[in-house]
């Protein structure tokens, strides 16, 4: 009978350990917010990310900056983006859904979250 209870306790501990570990593996990027800092004639964009599990807010969020339409590859950076004028295309920030994804790669094979904002350049 003691072996039976020992087995029950061991199985319970194993299932709790697996359940706790799987929660952190499911953390995913849910949204990106783009913020503009204006200084003089320059506008620099920064990104903040919202995730499904703690830490929920990441600021600055590593993103790949581009113009619309976004390219087929990405390289993540936490640096702000200062778009060169006179490009009047929307500014795009994109980041992988998986916070453990590679810092660069193909957007066709990596699920991404994308957010855009109008260009600060005069038309």
Could you explain the architecture of this structure?
With 123 residues, this protein is α+β, with helices and mostly antiparallel strands. The chain has one domain. It has 1 helix and 8 strands. The chain has a 3-stranded antiparallel sheet, with no helix packed on it. A 3-stranded antiparallel sheet has the order 4-6-8, with no helix packed on it. It has a two-stranded antiparallel ribbon with strand order 5-7. The longest helix has 24 residues. It is globular, with a radius of gyration of 21 Å.
Strands of the biggest beta sheet: in what spatial order?
A: 1-2-3
What percentage of amino acids are in beta strands? 35-45%
The major β-sheet equals: 3 strands, antiparallel
The tally of strands reads 8
Structural class: alpha+beta
What ranges have pLDDT less than 50 throughout 5 or more consecutive residues? 4-24
Distance between the termini: 81 Å
Helix content: 10-25%
Number of domains: 1
Following the backbone from N to C, one meets helices and strands in this order, namely HEEEEEEEE
User: Quick one: overall form?
Assistant: globular
Per DSSP, the total helix count is: 1
What's the rounded overall pLDDT mean? 83
* Rg of Cα set: 21 Å
